[in-house]
Structures are given as structure tokens and as C-alpha cells.
Amino acid sequence: MIKVEDLTLTYPSGKGIFNVDFTVKTGGITGYLGPNGSGKTTTIRALMGFMRPDSGICSINGMDCRTKATQIQNILGYIPGEISFFDQMEGDEFLNFMSDMRRTKNERRKNDLIELLDLNPKGKIKKFSKGMKQKLGIVAAFMHDPEILVLDEPTSGLDPLMQNVFIDLVMEEKKRGKTILMSSHMFEEVERTCDDIIIIKEGKIVTESDVGALKKALRKSYLIRPKNMDVGWDIMQNKGFEATKFAPDIIEAYIGGDDVDRFIKAVAGFEVESLDVRHQSLEDLFLEFYSKGGN
């Protein structure tokens, strides 16, 4: 289990994370969402013991991330947001170095991952492309078969084919009961893999929810192009519908299941040039939470 309790960590600039509190359940995948600078990487660095928090506690498998950082780093798999290697090393030399440091040897697992990701680990790392370096980082994180994985933007630099391969790998690990915290800004990736989602904004948790509940909260909207925008807009407002101006000549109205009949009657009250249905995506919901601060 990964547990973060009332964690605050600030930089001299005043930015950081503030009273962050969440739990990653054993055997599940939790997505940690937010744009660059929102606090995702700072939280993860605190979990890895790389940064000392001002206050609060974070723990992994009951071990304090600050005082037991070395033990924690040896038992989990970690992909940093910005992967840094010993560039003079060769790829296979780096993987052997990581195995020796962890005192683990699982050649079959390592070779299976290398084959899965279509990686040639031979050659100087400094000559590797960004995608190759990302694959090398993935192999290093997964090859000792850890029970817990902390992944910071793990598909960065991967092409779409390899992103799908990685998602399949993560789902397989989930089936095997692994506990995974994954930061990402790719909503399809999160929707396909995660059980729970945490959204962070400006260092503070905006909302937490399981993906199933979020999907149920997704709404249907209608894009209406009235012949006369002013008339259509006034009617939608007067009838009390939640509506926005999607474009200068298009109204977007959010309609719940109980309001469909009332909506149809309202639209019949003005001339309409076109009417389209738009299904809200997880990304739309994220942007809504983010813009409103979760309120």
C-alpha cells in the first residue's frame, strides 16, 4: 500500500504541494493527473525519499519514505519523469548494474521485457534515442518483478504502438496483483488502465474518485445551431438549461436523462439549422474539475 498523509513540501518560490492526502490501494492502479507544475513529480520524489517534506508522512508498505528510502527503492519499480542515465554505460551494462545494486537476478524476466519492448540494449546509452531510453527505464523498473510500481509519465517518448504494448504490460501486472501509482496526462491511457484517479491542481488535491464513478458522471450534451442565435440562447436560458456558447453560432446544452422531453419541447420553440450529440469524455470531465477547482 502507498499512503500519503497531509504532505506539504514547498520550494523557495512558494510552489510545491500542500496537505496532499491519498491512499493507493493494494492490487490496484491509481492515476495521478495534472498538468506540468501541478505537483505530481514533487509528490513522487517525496515517495521515493529524494526530497524531504516540510510536514506530513508518506509510506510504502508501512515503511516511512524518508527514513527507509533505501529499502523502499530496492523493493519497488520506479520510472522517473525525466530519466537520467550514466551515459558512458552501455544499456545492458546499466541493467546489470541495477540488478547488482538491488541484489536481484531474473535474467528470464529481463530478457522477456527486452523482447516485448523491442529494445536492443547494446551500445552506449548516450547514443540512444529518447524512446530507447524510455524502454530501458521500463525494463529497469519491471525486471526485478516488484510488488509496487511508481511510474511518472511512463509512456513519454514512446510511439503509439509501444504505448499500447506498455498499457498491456501494466494491465498484466495488475492481474498479478501489483500495486501501481501512475502519473499521466494521457487520458486514454488512464481510462484504460486505472481503477482510481487523483487530480492535483497547483499542489492541492482537487478530487479523488474511482474510474467507474467518473464514467457514470459523464454527461451527454447537444450542440445546437439556431437560425437566430439570440432567440435560441434566450429560450435555453429562460427554460433553465445549463448551456454555454460552444461557438459564436452554436449553443452547447447539457441534458440529463430526466430533461430530454423538456429539452425537445424547448428546441421546438425556435428554428434550428443543425443538432448534434456530443458525449463527454474523461478528458472533458478532468478539464471541468480543473477549471472549477473540483467544486
UniProtKB/TrEMBL annotation:
ABC transporter domain location: 2-227
Claim: Transport is one of the keywords in the record: yes
PROSITE patterns cross-referenced by the UniProt entry: ABC_TRANSPORTER_1 (PS00211), ABC_TRANSPORTER_2 (PS50893)
CDD domains documented for this protein: ABC_DR_subfamily_A
Keywords, in A-Z order: ATP-binding, Nucleotide-binding, Transport
Pfam families linked to this entry: ABC_tran (PF00005)
Single GO molecular function: ATP hydrolysis activity
Family stated for the protein in its record: Belongs to the ABC transporter superfamily.
Name the UniProt record assigns to this protein: ABC-2 type transport system ATP-binding protein
Upper classification of the organism: Bacteria, Bacillati, Bacillota, Clostridia, Eubacteriales
